[in-house]
Give the backbone structure.
Amino acid sequence: MSPAFAAAFSSLKVRDYRILWWGGLFSFMSVQMQFLLRGLLAWDLTEREGALGLVYLSFGLSMLVATPLGGVATDRFSRRSILIASQGAIMVAAVGMGVVVLLGIAQFWMLLVAAVVQGASFGFFGPARVALAAEYVGRDQLGNAIALSLLSMNGTRIFAPSLAGILAGVAFFGIGGAYLMAAAFSLAGFVSLLRLPAPTRVIEPSGRNPLQDIVEGGRYVAGRPPLRRLVVASFFVIMFGFNYVAFYPAMIEGVFGLDETWVGYISSASALGAVFVAIPLAGKADSPWAKTAMTIGGLVFGGGVVLFGLAPSFWVAFVVIMVVGAATTVFQSLSNTLALGMTDEGHQGRVQSLMQLSFAGFGMAAAPLGFLAEAIGLRQAITIMGGVAMASVLLYVLFEGGFRMIRPTAENASVVDSDLARTPAPSA
């Protein structure tokens, strides 16, 4: 095994992180299948872009409410228990949707309820998983651990959407059977998470109610300008740019005139690009060039979404989405690494919850963007999404003052914190 290849997978040498990684692999397989199935079912029930947006709006609103609470819970309670409980809720929602579809009683409001349950579950799952990974591997390998987590997520996107699309198109399975298959993967993830060791972290009571902890976490970020700029930029890039995935069914079936199987293929194209870049990225995620690479990744991501909206054919869109998938992985992995590198352990859950709020924003923006697509055209709306993402990255560069490097290690994080300490943060 070459040194570069070994460095790319160094975090997997840590037993507890390895268990967490495998649990995430099964969980993401289920999640990616349901992500596609949710859009397919919404389109089949309504055939309206606005309905697609409403499903993701329900997901986003519940995630918006739950994510700050998930960050507080991550800093207060057992991260293992939070993961197990939230994964269980995701599994139950998948089983419920599979059953109602197979019984032929599925209605649009049921899809909204399932989206709410899963959005709330993700609000707790995301911050706990990233913070637990940081706890297992330490700051020096934090970038590698986050990159490998994204590798497991994006790796499943190669197979899961295609599998979901194929199963949904087969009469014997259909969308209901595909949902139950997703639930089986979720069960495997649930069982894997049960193997994580009992927590040893000593948690000091904060003496505040959850709302006070949420406010204190916001003040922590607000009082640290580099961290604040990073959180805000990430929020707008994901909130607007990432919404292109919500309109896969409308673009592939409505614009290109292809069936639902091809929706899975276009989603897999994004995953192929993500996996292609993930392994070399994992070996370099903790290096000094991380900030510059993150910024370039964000610009390529936004530009790729613009090109997707303008794509004249499916195969042009396929190639563009491969590039978008690679750029998304670079931006997400490095922005999370940089954010945690500037955060002390007592605030990691809440900072991660703020980073994850971008996906709640993505869900919330889907409905207005869906109605915008109905008003001005789908291609034009997707082009606007990519333009907003690019503008957000450019504004980040402008306010940050150039491509300064930040090495996300324990040593550098302490330097960042000591520099910022000279500017007092607002008291809780």
About this structure: Residues 15-46 form the longest helix (32 residues). The chain has one domain: 14-196+209-420. The radius of gyration is 20 Å. Confidence is low (pLDDT under 50) at residues 403-428.
